[in-house]
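We treat protein structure as text, and this decision shapes the records that our systems exchange. The tokens are whole numbers drawn from a learned vocabulary of local backbone shapes. Below, we set out a record of this kind in full and without editing:
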Amino acid sequence: MNDADVSKQIQQMVRFIRQEAQEKANEISLSAEEEFNIEKLQIVEAEKKKIRQDYERKTKQVEVRKKIEYSMQLNASRIKVLQAQDDVVSEMKDAASKELLRVSDNKNAYKALLKGLIVQSLLRLKEPSILLRCREMDVSLVNSVLEDAKREYAKKAKGQAPSITIDKVYLPPPPSSKQPLGPFVLASQDGKIVCENTLDARLDVVFRQKLPEVSPLESYICYENLNQ
């Protein structure tokens, strides 16, 4: 083989090596680009997921704040309604108390009231000996109905009427809003059993019993006032 053939063969080998190297380089480049694209996609997806989670977290926070604000506003409205309702009921009770201050003006009606309340109290106590405390101004009226009340009690209870002593310590006269109104308080002689039949005590009982009936109406009135 002469020099020309050797040179030619060397040139062919060089071209082959260069071609193989180029192909290998292209292969490495494509593989690197593919790995880069995969990693880039993973990073993008991770960031998207992070953004979605952050968005969901902030959305929930906003919803929680809205619920808290709504709850606070609702509670504030309820308090206003209850306060307005309580004010109206108190006004009604005050008005009724003022009317009760005049209950003794009609002596015949007041006398019948005294008798009825004495009988009612005796039926509740059912004690053989009773201490009755009334207003000093009512002593004569109480004495005038006492025997009739005892007879009516005996008839209703189907037993003997108790002995009744009028206490020398009297209830305060009207119109003291801080003291019990008449007509009286009854108790057993030992003071262990007490039946308070003052008009303000009875008024409290009536309002407690009627409050479920009054409240819905007053709540509606109060609600309408709050929205005006």
Remarks:
- The CA atoms of residues 81 and 220 lie 9 Å apart.
- Strands lie at 129-134, 163-166, 183-188, 194-198.
- Confidence is low (pLDDT under 50) at residues 217-228.
- The radius of gyration is 49 Å.
